[in-house]
TrEMBL record:
Residues that hold GTP according to the record: 13-20, 60-64, 124-127
Region annotation G1: where it falls in the sequence: 13-20
Ranges for region G2: 39-43
Chain segments carrying region G4: 124-127
Start and end residues of each stretch annotated as G3: 60-63
Subcellular locations according to the entry: Cytoplasm; Cell membrane
Record-given protein name: GTPase Era
Length: 303
């Protein structure tokens, strides 16, 4: 009888280091929000991958950065909590940015928080620098922290990802699988649907709207014909934000709704009827219920 293995792998790093892209590449499906903007992952999103007889449960944590607001603090707490719960931690560092001040802060914190668990280094976006620079960066990082193993990868293009996944699979503890074989994520579908719409909003609005919006799936109705009706609320903080979000004659919200619906249909494999409503809630960043919907702990945002 073949022995199975299973365990949790936390992906940590600065915002935009490529954690969500790596998670999606490992799982082979899109389970985490990926945009060109930083700090897009708010909750720890688990994606499940199979490598041989090993089930790898990836935890894509929010980027680690200097928090300024309650939401920032809750996100950073979620990131470190994800690392603390994992069997193995993988730190992603962008090859072209190197050892930034933010990376140094994470390395210092790892000395306190890693708790003896293996920490692998994944230098990402290796296609952006020359080989000699990669060697210098590898030495510099390993001098700062005693990594169990170092990998050179491009999460976007897939280079080195299989090697990293095979190593992780061999390092995880022996034991039964934690999730059914055909499950790729443990986020509720309602939350995945909200994340997809939030991603489309972020991509569409670029710099126009700050991070002061959130999306919640208010209603999910499975219909007899096999389709699903999804009602979502988009909370913004000001009337002006609502105007930007709606766009001229409702063009922006229509485009976002169409893009989100198409991706949801592909993800769910069935017809989706998506209805979006925009509401102004000036204080949503200080409402515990909003944090629960995002999978964050409201109290973690306390100073």
């Amino acid at each position: 009888m073949t022995e199975t293995r299973a365990g949790f792998v936390a992906l940590i790093g600065e915002p935009n280091a490529g954690k969500s892209t790596l998670l999606n590449r490992m799982v082979g499906a899109k389970v985490s929000i990926v945009t060109h903007k930083v700090q897009t992952t708010r909750a720890r999103i688990r994606g499940v991958a199979i490598e041989g007889d090993t089930q790898l449960v990836f935890v894509d944590t929010p980027g680690l950065f200097a928090p300024r607001r309650r939401l920032d603090r809750a996100m950073v707490a979620a990131a470190w909590s994800g690392a603390a719960d994992a069997d193995i931690v993988v730190l992603l560092v962008e090859a072209h940015r190197g050892v930034t001040a933010g990376v140094k802060v994470i390395l210092e914190a790892l000395n306190e928080r890693a708790g003896g668990r293996p920490v692998a280094l994944a230098i990402n976006k290796i296609d952006k620098v020359k080989a000699d620079k990669l060697l210098v960066l590898t030495k510099e990082l390993n001098d700062l922290y005693d990594f169990t193993e170092t990998f050179m990868i491009s999460a976007e293009k897939g280079h080195g990802v299989d090697t990293l996944r095979k190593w992780l699979a061999a390092e995880l503890p022996k034991g039964p699988w934690l999730y059914p074989e055909d499950q790729i994520a443990d986020l509720p579908l309602r939350m995945i649907a909200a994340e997809i719409t939030r991603e489309k909003l972020t991509l569409r609005l670029h710099q126009e709207l700050p991070y002061q919006l959130t999306v919640e799936t208010e209603n999910w109705e499975d219909r007899k014909d096999g389709s699903v009706k999804i009602d979502q609320l988009i909370y913004v903080m000001r009337d002006g934000h609502k105007g930007i979000l709606l766009g001229h004659k409702g063009e922006t919200i229509k485009a976002v709704g169409k893009a989100s619906r198409e991706e949801l249909e592909e993800f769910l494999g069935r017809k989706v009827h998506l209805f979006l409503q925009v509401k102004v809630r000036p204080n949503w960043l200080n409402e515990a219920e909003r944090y629960s919907e995002m999978g964050l702990n409201f109290k973690d945002g306390n100073k």
